[in-house]
Amino acid sequence: MSVFRRTAGSRALVKGLRHHGYSSIATVQEPTLVSVMPNQMRVASEATSGETATVGVWIDTGSRYETDANNGVAHFLEHIAFKGTTKRSQLQLETEVENMGAHLNAYTSREQTVYYAKVLKKDVPKAVEILSDILLNSTFSKAAVNRERDVILREMEEVESQIEEVVFDRLHEVAYVGTPLARTILGPEENISSITADDIVKYVKTHYTAPRMVLAASGAINHDELVSLAGDYFGGVPMAPPDGYTFEDTPSLFSGSDVRDYNDDMPSAHMAFAFEGLKWTDPDVFTLMLMQSLLGVYDSKSAGAAHSSTPLTVALANSGLFTSVQPFCTCYNDTGLFGLYATANLAGYHEAQEVQQILQDEMVSLCTGVSDEDLAKAKSSLKLNMLMQMDGSSPTAEEIGRQMLTFGRRMNLAETWARIDAVDTSDVKRVADKVIWDQEVAFAAVGAGLKYMGDMNSLRRGTFWNGIEVLSLGNMGISHRAGPVRRLQLHKLGSRAEQNSGRMMREEEG
User: Fold this and answer.
1) Which of 28, 86, 292, 296 makes an SS bond possible with 310, Cβ 3.0 to 4.6 Å?
2) pLDDT tens, 288-317?
3) Which among 66, 78, 276, 399 is annotated as catalytic?
4) Residues 122-131: what's their mean pLDDT?
5) Does the annotation mark 398 as catalytic?
6) Known catalytic residue at 148
7) 78-97 as b/e, with b when 16 or more CB fall inside 10 Å?
8) ∠ CA 451-455-460 to the nearest 5 degrees?
């Protein structure tokens, strides 16, 4: 007997949104229906019109739950799961999926593993059955494991050629030194070469338990039918791993450090600055997302960048040193990363100093406050991006599965909008102070001219301005984020301790 719970926006939240002009969006959203099976596996769905649906299994496990010895096994499992089961050969599986005209896929992240299918409405039962067969009955033959090694090693070579992927992997390594989030998803080459079928079976028995699994669906879905299918095909999933199959859920601790891969043969430098962000369930997570929107995105190919409303984008365009800059806000179960990813040309010390100063100054300037007008624009931008990411059954199913694992429930648009609209300028300053002001920073970079970039002491000094300086700006009626009319060059102190004895100077340009 399943326990049924209905998740829908409250009348109070919807009413509170009307004066913001979003009540129509919030009220037309279909409710997310959630059922809990006797083995504690959850079933969550959102029905919409149409003739297609996306259904998948979201599992609360990824590379952070591995060890140094088996790092890469979760991703290896994702590959090998499609190579045959006790009921189907690889050819039979591929033929069935092709005959349905379906799309069957999977991916692994640091905290989640996902298997999903997009199918016609009539094929939802078959999709659920195939997903269960893949997850519960894969054979993991020795021959298939050996064949897949070469595939994964080739994939590793492809990932190494994607500079952004490399930088973010290195960023995690230095941000979470010696803790689970420092591990890459693919794992080191020596592990890929040594992982066995027994290692994969042990990983499945340890982590693929019912309370850590969610069957999520969106589109042409009947929830009661989905619950029945879940009982038929996933009702036998155990609630706990067998005796002896245990793992340690070790927290990931942020530490300020850096890594630089010098390569002057590359045309530019790719770098990421990051502070410790917030976990998914932190009450301030939407404020941090708004801070990401406040910073803005820069692309040198965009003709209107110099006329943007965000000070960061204007400063980047006027400098002529940057190819692109993208803020990021990455959340995990117990921590997060907040910062900027940039591609820039570092021809010498002057250029490198200016690049570092622009990026850090604009992040630190959030601590001095933002205008109501800028915050309103950021709210509209964030809402639009969220709606775009939910455009279709697959993105919606993805959001349902992820939120069920991270929040334990689906947060509907009415509540999401209410939380975003509740953020005011004082919240932005408070959260910026907590995340950015005089906090440890992680830095990872690959490319040319990195020898000109400041060391970790220099990066650490760039995380705050002297309090007297900030106060004087306020007394002068100047907000650092007011626009590009004037820019203040600030000479910073080295640490909190140095603030008592150091001396601050200010040069005014222009």
Assistant:
1) 296
2) 999 999 999 998 887 665 556 678 888 888
3) 78
4) 98
5) no
6) yes
7) bbbbbbbbeebeeeebeebb
8) 150
